[in-house]
Design a protein that fits this description.
alpha+beta; two-stranded parallel ribbon; flat
Length: about 55
């Protein structure tokens, strides 16, 4: 049997390091069970702004 590891990419909509959303994601990462890779995207400030009118 082939084993595929589950990967979760979490994105906080806030750029503040101490935002509640960021703290929540950090807590989720600590509680993630074995076999699941929980990644928090930390380069939100490098993405362009989204504007659906463009």
């Amino acid at each position: 049997m082939q084993y595929t590891q589950l990967k979760v990419l979490a994105v906080s909509g806030s750029l503040r390091k101490s935002s509640l959303n960021r703290l929540f994601l950090e807590s989720m990462k600590l509680l993630t069970p074995t076999g699941i890779e929980f990644l928090i995207y930390g380069k939100l400030d490098q993405l362009p702004f989204f504007n659906p009118d463009l």
